[in-house]
Amino acid sequence: MTSFGGYQNEIYLQGLGDQVPMFTTDGSRLEEAARATMEPGPFGYVAGGAGAGATLRANREAFDRCRIVPRMLTDATKRDLSTTVLGTSMPAPVLLAPVGVQSIVHPDGELATARAAAELGVPMVLSTASSYSIEDVAAANKGSNGDGQRWYQLYWPNDDDVTISILSRAKAAGFTTLVLTLDTWTLAWRTVDLDQAYLPFIRGIGTAIPFSDPAFRAGLDKSPEEDPTAAILRWIPTFTGTDKRWDRLPFLREHWEGPIVLKGIQHVDDARRAVDAGMDGIVVSNHGGRQVDGAVASLDVLPEIAAAVGDDLAVLFDSGIRTGSDIVKALALGAQAVLVGRPFVYGLALGGQDGVRHAVRSLLADLDLTLGLSGHRTSAELSPDTLRQS
């Protein structure tokens, strides 16, 4: 049992030697801090959303409408945040979300994130749009405490041979759960990126996985090293532009032995279809507001989805989480665990591996202390009764 809240004491004790944290412990201020250090293109790519940003705002507004009602004298001195989701044991119900092209934020990119995740024992989800290969990230995720916990996120290629090859590599590299992103089969109208004409993929960033894949390379006249432009022009339409159908999911089950999670569910009927399709889990998510401008906030649909399918598959959540209290709210409304994206990426921008570790430790400490101070010893004690809607 890990006492994440102990990070608070560690920081205060370091203050006796006039040492302060490398950057803010306030998850809601990380974006502001990262803006000062990042180039406009990369910052806009990470922070921006679709269209006018209505969904970005809606995600945060949904958390603000939801208030915790603390309970007293509950013997919450010692907390246990540990849980198991789809066979993955984790010290807290938190995973690092799949975020692509992390090298635009820091040169070490996903390698730094993988090392920090291994240090903390927190599972990470690797994006298909990684700046580093599956194998290199897996090697970085093997920390001093043993092998890290890692899941693999798939942007489903339109080439079956490439899909099969990537899945085989991920399995061989120790990725245990497949996370299929449904909501980004093509890019939304992302005005922040468009105004700067900034797209990492056409610059050859975030292409390490296909460029190192034997099935993808077999379809090229020249290797990506010899003709990177041709490789880029082949990869972009291979993983974007085609919306799959529900009847294609058995293909993934045929070629992936572990659990499969569908990411991007916002409608209760789609959640039910995931159950009918034999999926193992879903992520209630609007891609952090990056895909459909004006979409419903993920937190607003979480309760009805969890009530409908929570007994049949694992319900996870992302979109808008910045603080420990946000995590408490999502867990109370039915999520078994949450995926956190932008906060750790801002930490990466501010301090590489150390920055990811500080950002995630701060979030986990905030979660631990908020859980206890609201009168709970485990996340299983949380329920909708923990909250009030304003």
Task: Please give the share of residues in helix.
Answer: 40-55%
Adjacency order of strands in the biggest sheet = 4-13-12-11-10-9-8-5
- Total count of domains: 1
Rg measurement, Å: 20 Å
Question: Strand content of the residues, in percent?
Answer: 5-15%
What pattern of helices and strands is seen along the backbone? HHHHEEEEHEHEEEHEHHHHHEHEHEHEHE
Let me know the number of strands: 14
The CATH superfamily title: Aldolase class I
Distance between the termini: 35 Å
The CATH class designation is Alpha Beta
Give the overall shape.
globular
Helix tally equals 16
Uncertain residue ranges:
none
Overview of this protein structure:
- This protein has helices at 6-15, 30-35, 40-47, 54-65, 109-120, 134-140, 160-172, 191-195, 208-211, 214-218, 228-239, 249-255, 268-276, 298-309, 324-332, 342-373, and strands at 66-68, 83-85, 88-90, 94-96, 124-126, 142-143, 146-147, 150-154, 178-181, 260-265, 281-284, 314-317, 337-340, 387-389.
- The model has no long low-confidence stretch (mean pLDDT 97).
- With 390 residues, the protein is an alpha/beta fold.
